[in-house]
């Protein structure tokens, strides 16, 4: 004690052994398959998606939405991760290929609607895999401001990545950003 003030020194230690399990999380993957992703970038984007799914927990769920001029869901709702990993079509994503423009905003709105319907009360994260050749940057940021509790993690895959939107999105939503060259070892980075 000093004068009218009382001081204390506290030491908080992390547990020596991490908890064996964490709460299940829903992961929403938005994967760019526009024409600008053709070739090695698409192969690396598919590898990034598959690598991400492999490191998720057995009780997590995953929803995959591909976007270009239009968007397409891999399934109607989040799937248990083991089911996704066992699916033959998921293991052969590289064959899906690319086409169209890069229209992220409609796909993002769709994913937010699906998450509101299927992930109420569950922790959720959005993982965006793209080369970041995206317009409507301010509209995308404004839309995500409506869901401040939805972290966004971005994997930007390109040689000369336009990362301004991806960085802003991750900062705003409290996520992480990874800039990857198509020649990088994507699986190791994930």
Provide the helix percentage. 25-40%
Strand content: 15-25%
How many DSSP-defined strands? 7
Arithmetic mean pLDDT: 92
- The count of helical stretches stands at 7
Spans with pLDDT under 50 lasting ≥5 residues? none
Please write the string of helix (H) and strand (E) elements: EHEEEHHHEHEHEH
Which oligomeric state applies?
A: single chain
Radius of gyration: 19 Å
Q: Give the overall shape, derived from the CA principal axes.
A: globular
Structural class: alpha/beta
Distance between the termini: 50 Å
Largest sheet: 7 strands, mixed
Verbal overview:
There is one protein chain. By secondary structure, the chain is α/β, with parallel strands linked by helices. The protein is built from 7 helices and 7 strands; from the N terminus they run βαβββαααβαβαβα. Strands 1, 2, 3, 4, 5, 6 and 7 form a 7-stranded mixed sheet that branches. Helix 5 (137-145) packs parallel to helix 6.
Features:
alpha/beta
Strand and helix map with partners:
Elements lengths: L25 E7 L7 H16 L5 E7 L3 E3 L5 E2 H6 L1 H4 L12 H15 L5 E7 L6 H9 L6 E6 L6 H10 L3 E4 L5 H4 L1
Parallel strand pairs: 1-2, 1-5, 5-6, 6-7
Antiparallel strand pairs: 2-3, 2-4
Helix pairs in contact: 5-6
Brief sketch in words of this structure:
The chain has about 190 residues and is an alpha/beta fold. It is built from seven helices and seven strands; from the N terminus they run βαβββαααβαβαβα. The chain has helices spanning about 40-55, 80-85, 90, 105-120, 135-145, 165-175, 185-190; strands at about 25-30, 60-65, 70-75, 80, 125-130, 150-155, 175-180.
